[in-house]
# Entry
Amino acid sequence: MTRRLSLAGQLLALQVVIVCVVLVGVAAVTVAQSTLRAEEVEGRRALEVAETLANDQSTRDALAAGSLDYVRIAAENSRSNSGSEDVVVAWADRTVLASADPGLLDQPLDIGASRVLEGRSWVGDVDFRDGRAAVAMAPVYSPRGDEVLGFVSVQRPYPGILQGLAAAAPNLLTYLGLASVLGIVGSLLVARRVKRQTLGLEPAEIAGLVEHRDAMLHGIREGVVGLDLRGRVTLVNDEAIRLLHIPGDALGRTLDDLGVAEEVRAALLSSGVERDRAVGSAGRVLVVNRLPLTSRGRPLGSVATLRDRTELLELRRELELTRHVTDTLRAQAHEFDNRLHTIAGLIELGEPEEAVRFVHRVSSSRSEFGAAVADAVRDPALAALLIAKASQAAELGVDLRVAPDSALPVLSPELSTDVATVVGNLVDNALDAASGAAERWVEVGLGLVDDEVDVVVRDSGPGVPPGMEAEVFRRGVSTKGGRSTDDAGVPGGRGIGLSLVQLVCTRRGGEVTASSSDGSVFTARIPVGASLVDA
# Structure
């Protein structure tokens, strides 16, 4: 298997590549600058040679006298001494009379754009057999200086690319050495810093961790949401997107921008640790666990997990209803046993008339409460629930009564079930609170106001502790002693009834509140919508 380079090795290799690229660039710039300087220098040197020869008095006298041998010797000496490619002397009609190239003798010389025949020196460049060369031309005046007898043309070749590189080689090697040293030292320092920040992990290991994290994040069935200190989403998986009904491009956006429900937003943005907090979102019940994140004592944000517990709580609600029925039947059986024992004792004592009167009193008492319930509550399920709760209240020694202004028509089966859940849990809570009071009574008020079913349950208990009017509806919170979680760690035991009441109310768009006024007062409002059935 091919062994991967370490982070330091990769950075060093990258630095070497960068150094090489920079070196090539420096070489190109150096050669270009050398060429430019050489062109300027060669042009000035060519002009100096041309003007020196043209202004020499001997040259002027020889050219005026027609002494061609002297002129040719002087031109060759000037070429040899200056290292020029060629020194040409020509008459004013451009006929060459001296040159190192015999083929140019007695031939007209092309002067191009030069104005040397007008008595002005000129510098330019021309192409020749091995490249380009600097050309300088200077006029040769007569001894008296009143006439241009001819001119001197000097050619000096420009150095080539290889010559430029050879000239710049010492500097380039110095640059290469310094860059290599700096690159190696910089690579080691950068690699050391990066590895310290990445906890000593190599890039391949970091990539593997990221891949595993993504696979795990999107593979688990719980929703995961990470937030920074500003409340912006830094981490979210597919399950959280589904549960919160937020768009897939949630990263970097706040919960307000994403339209997250207020109750869920409050749980996710809480300042402390949240354990199994039940919240409602889009008709679902989510259990939120939130944990703040810190690194080296510095807060980073928070991470929260979301679990869908809608089906579980629906099952709990059905079990609660079943428990209500079971408790009621047990209370009724206990009550009937006591009354049968009383009747049997009276008969054994030879008091049949007293037994008959006792039966009439019991029947009258139950008939009066049943009649009151039947007159006030037309819904059979709710009426049966209240009558059954009367037996449970009698067992606890609590007087259960219906408010005089109660009036509730027949409801649809679904709405009736939800209202029964609310009434059953509120009455159970009130009976429990009133059973320890000096005066033991619970009053239930039911009515239909502005297309809302209003449920008001009062009791003679100690009332809701100050400051806990909202907390009593949180799952697992109870004003009485007892466990707040079940064996599985899911909220249960005490503190479940009022939470279910709030769940039912908020799911249907209603609300439930708690207050204290000579005991506890719980008020629930459940919108009817299109669920009402005429009696």
Summary: Confidence is low (pLDDT under 50) at residues 481-494.
